Amino acid sequence: MNRRVLGFLSLRGLPLTATVLMSLSCAREETQAPVQALGQGTNTSEIHSKHFFYGCPMGTDATNDLIIRDIYALSSNDRTKFADWVAYRLDEKSVSGDATTRRNFKADPWLDDAETLETDDYDGAWEDLSVDRGHQAPLASFKGTDFWAQTNYLSNITPQKSALNQGPWKRLEEKVRGLVEAGHVVYVITGPLYERGFPALPGADEPHQVPSGYWKIVALETDSVICASFMFDQETPRDNPIVSHLCTINDVEAKSRLDFLWQLPDDIEEKIESDTFQAWARANFD
User: What angle, 0 to 180 degrees and rounded to 10, lies between the N-to-C axes of helices 249-256 and 266-273?
Assistant: First the structure.
């Protein structure tokens, strides 16, 4: 596959294992070429993106593909065929717009065929499993950009139970946009959990692993860092309150085996990651 790096990425000291792909807003996605790096144990201090909140999430497999786009960054897992995490930064400009968005799903053009699912792999998924094609970086949060269609790449999609996707997950996304519309710059990191087996997509012709649940970290920085973290099981009922899924970043790290906010001093990181910020979360997500 012909891949091209569009933009600047510092890669000093990184092993040639996984793949890093990024774009500038002025570039066309059709032009791509190879650059490689970033895996388990990598010096991620050399990976920079506006989407990262105190560091690129650490702990992914060495074979993952790190993709950095205009509106999000993600780490795509070759084995599961889904992103281990998706990170995105939201401001008023990105969420406020009159773009006519569409759900035109397609395979990620920056991934090899063996690394991702295709659209027909989801055939029969709703009928058999009651799952939607769930956006991790939400389509509705990028109406103010020219790049909203990038959210429809299947690297940003997972099979998510309809009740969860159209219920508390959707409401949480709407609450996040409410924070942005109130004038905040908000950072979101989200991803899947694999705590038990879940049926495979009936139409898929390649190995994959459907998540058993999901997590989301919502962060902003005013005079201090504020974070609200949530975990949802696939079987979460449609009318479940968002705040009933509140947890700490430490809880997310323990289940996802990822490391967040590692650029902060250890004492400050631990203070933030062990706090649910319950009062703030209830005020904004209840």
Answer: 90
The CA distances from residue 51 to 69, 71, 142, in Å, are: 9, 8, 14
SS (H, E, C) 71-129: CCEEEECCCCCCEEEEEEEECHHHHCCCCCCCCCCECCCCCCHHHCCCHHHHCCHHHHH
Do the beta carbons of residue 213 and residue 235 sit within 8 Å? no
Q: Please work out, in degrees rounded to the nearest 5, the angle formed at the alpha carbon of residue 75 by the alpha carbons of 70 and 77.
A: 140
**pLDDT tens, position by position, 249-277:** 999 999 999 999 999 999 999 999 999 99
Q: Which domains does the chain have, with CATH numbers?
A: 89-285 (3.40.570.10)
Q: How far apart are CA 283 and CA 227, in angstroms?
A: 13
The pTM of this model reads 0.87
**Positive or negative, the Cα torsion across 90, 92, 161, 214?**
positive
Q: What is the pLDDT of residues 18-47, one digit of tens each?
A: 455 654 333 333 333 323 334 444 455 678
Token pair listed for 163 = 């009740």
Task: Indicate if 51 belongs to the active site.
Answer: no
Active-site residue identified among 48, 51, 135, 208: 135
